[in-house]
Amino acid sequence: MKDPKVSIIMSSYNHENFIEYAIESVIAQTYENFELIIVDDCSEDGSVEIINNWLKKDNRIKAIFHSKNEGIARTFNHGLRIANGDYILIMASDDMLRCDAVETCLNVLLREGCCCVIFDAEIIDTNNETIGLRFSDMYGKPSKLKGKFFNELVRGNFIMTGMVKRDILYKRKILFDERLKHLNDWLFWLDISKVCDYCYIKEPLYFYRIHPTNSSLKKGEHVQDIPEMYNILAQKYRLGRIDRSFFMKRIAIEYYMGYLNDAKNTREYLLQAWRLNPFNIKLFILYMLSLLNPRIIKAIKLLKTSLKMFFLRKYVKNREILKIIKRRYIN
Fold first, then answer.
1. What's the CA dihedral at 291, 292, 295, 300 to 10 degrees?
2. What is the spatial distance between Cα 308 and Cα 239, in angstroms, rounded to a whole number?
């Protein structure tokens, strides 16, 4: 395929302070055969004006403006449905692409024969300064550079974003699941990983911005999606006992204990997790602790968070960023 076209889909919502940088990072790409589709989800700030100004400057930019706020899943799906590139890359309007991101992804895809490529990201602050951490430092990374990632990805989302063949999405009818408010990106990449091989690029080709108004920073909201995420996966795919046990544990600790403070259901789901994986000593201990006093589990979680924050302080000097990380990114 000579000079394949890439559709870059950018979600936009109230990022007037950052969207200019995001658009500029796309326009500055070393690979020029792309279309940029910006889908604004009824922003209430100056984002729409900025987008309209860019529409006049570059005919590769298209824009869709929602008349009401429809959520991140519908926003990306709207862009996916009108994209006509050979490959799809998704991004947010508060983030940025490295100038050679598209070119690097295409080179790997065409060389390795994969249908999807994912990559690492540098974490930046509101001033576009790197904070000393990568996305993989926070969320982990796959154990291999190429292959089937479903079995790893089902245990937790380590994908910031990536580029995928459009035909894969359309033939398999893969979209963002609108039943999920926060974890729909995780399910999106899981659906792709079930049908094709991934390639992983260690280099950070993306700049992921942490700031107080990130849509995913509201404490506890992402946790609400975990039970529904499990139900969707259980219906779509035949999850093994270990994977089901993993989700039972997450539902117990993060949803019932951390979010709802529900000791009874915490015990019940930990029991289910242990029965599915009876040789896991850690699960047995957690279940026993839940019978004695569930607050012990909370204390252990707080200790783990404190240890992680102690480690991060060696690398991240910005106190505001540390507060944000502690609030949302440390589980």
1. -90
2. 30
pTM of the full structure = 0.92
Extract the tokens encoding 109: 């895809």
Task: Give me the tens of pLDDT residue by residue for the chain, a chain 331 residues long.
Answer: 679 999 999 999 999 999 999 999 999 999 999 999 999 999 999 999 999 999 999 999 999 999 999 999 999 999 999 999 999 999 999 999 999 999 999 999 999 999 999 999 999 999 999 988 999 998 999 999 999 999 999 999 999 999 999 999 999 999 999 999 999 999 999 999 999 999 999 999 999 999 877 655 555 678 889 999 999 999 999 999 999 999 999 999 989 998 898 999 999 999 999 999 999 999 999 999 999 988 888 888 888 878 888 877 877 877 778 877 776 655 5
- Compute the C-alpha angle 236/149/162, nearest 5°: 95
Residue 328 tokens, joined: 């949302």
Residue appearing with tokens 């009818």: 173
Cβ 199 vs Cβ 111: under 8 Å? no
Please give, one letter per residue, the 3-state secondary structure of the chain. Answer: CCCCCEEEEEEECCCCCCHHHHHHHHHCCCCCCEEEEEEECCCCCCHHHHHHHHHCCCCCEEEEECCCCCCHHHHHHHHHHHCCCCEEEEEECCCEECCCHHHHHHHHHHHHCCCEEEEEEEEECCCCCEEEEEHHHHHCCCCCCEECCHHHHCCCCCCCCEEEEHHHHHHHCCCCCCCCCCCHHHHHHHHHHHHCCEEEEEEEEEEEECCCCCCCCCCCCHHHHHHHHHHHHHHHCCCCHHHHHHHHHHHHHHHHHHHCCCHHHHHHHHHHHHHHCCCCHHHHHHHHHHHHCCHHHHHHHHHHHHHHHHHHHCCCCCHHHHHHHHHHHCC
Q: Which domains does the chain have, with CATH numbers?
A: 6-209 (3.90.550.10), 222-329 (no CATH)
